[in-house]
Amino acid sequence: MVHVAFEDAAAYAAWAGKELPTEAEWEFAARGGLDGAEFAWGEELAPGDVHLANTWQGPFPWRNFEADGFAGTCPIKSFPPNGYGLFEVCGNVWEWTQDWWSAKHAADPESPCCVAENPRGADMTGSFDPLQPAIRIPRKVVKGGSFLCAPSYCRRYRPAARHAQMVDTGMSHIGFRCIRRQ
Questions:
Q1: Residues of the chain with pLDDT > 70: what percent?
Q2: Which of 14, 27, 89, 152 is buried most, with the most CB atoms less than 10 Å from its CB?
Q3: What is the Cα–Cα distance from 160 to 114, expressed in whole angstroms?
Q4: How far is the CA of 87 from the CAs of 29, 82, 99, 127, 166, in angstroms?
Q5: CATH 3.40.50.2300 is right for the domain spanning 1-43+51-99+150-182
């Protein structure tokens, strides 16, 4: 599902008895056990010229060669699952997380040089865009990149990549994934 603002994604998750993941939970799941690998499937974007995610191929934004087989979103299970059996965790659509956006994660108070083991974003007021002070719409972290991410433009189809998204805005390349905590 796409064109979903954050509140709608969170409401659906609650209705289904689930939640949206935190940024750290999302990234852990997307890595599929490949801790430290650049991509959810390993170190190469297209090993052996085989595309393993729905991304943009070609000069962005004017020509997508569709070497992965898709001009826009793809159906789930179009590409192999990651090590945890999750499909389309990178590429295809950005996915909402629970965390408020911050430019970087706060340091671990026990070790001021390092990011906390399970970092959480800023509070809501810290998520506003400082470059647009007149726009007071909070932002959440989205993860995973989309079919619009290209090597020449953003490379955000990596598990570590993150982006700020205003909570009131759904787009054709933003969706969500639900989790159930034990």
A1: 93
A2: 89
A3: 16
A4: 11, 7, 22, 29, 25
A5: no
How far is it, in rounded angstroms, from Cα 121 to Cα 21? 12
**Residue 37: pLDDT over 70:** yes
Every domain of the chain and the residues it spans = 1-43+51-99+150-182
What does the alpha-carbon distance between residue 121 and residue 101 come to, in Å, rounded to a whole number? 6
Place of tokens 């000069």: 59
Distance CA(159)–CA(30), nearest Å, equals 6
Q: Which two tokens stand for residue 24?
A: 């750290």
Secondary structure of 97-136 as H, E, C letters? EEEECCCCCCEECCEEEEECCCCCCECHHHHCCCCCCCCC
Q: Region 76-90: what's the mean pLDDT?
A: 97
* Distance from C-alpha of 99 to C-alpha of 22, rounded to nearest angstrom: 6
Does residue 181 have a pLDDT over 70? yes
Is-contact 115 101, C-beta < 8 A? no
Are the C-beta atoms of 90 and 40 separated by less than 8 Å? yes
In this predicted model, which residue has the larger pLDDT, 108 or 129? 129
50's tokens: 């085989």
Place of tokens 């993150």: 162
